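Hi there,

I know you've been waiting on this one. I reran it after we fixed the sequence typo, so this is the corrected version. Both the input and the resulting structure follow.
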Amino acid sequence: MTADRRDAGRAAEQLAARFLEARGLVILKRNFRCRAGEVDLIARDGSTLVFVEVRLRAGRAFGGAAASVDARKQAKVLRAAQYYLAGRPEQPCRCDVIALDRLAADRIEWIRDAFAA
């Protein structure tokens, strides 16, 4: 991954975090990594723990940002979420997607409960 892409990814995650915080979510963790995978943002929405995948795609080729969260990526997020939850009290959870086609707050698509947790 090039430095430009890495910087764009970080900027997208920062934009997504601010967007979610403005809507009342509390960001608990950024870039949670484990051997099972990675979760871009972990947040709390009331009593619900939210695992957020942030996707930035400059173009709509191949379906755009939301479509890039395919079954393989969903499985990786779910495995990382399970790892994060291990040993913690049971609580309601969901997986959301923040999709951006460019780095602009007015271009954010928030897909709540995007795939099964």
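Quick highlight: The domain at 3-115 is CATH 3.40.1350.10 (Trna Endonuclease; Chain: A, domain 1).

Best,
R. S.
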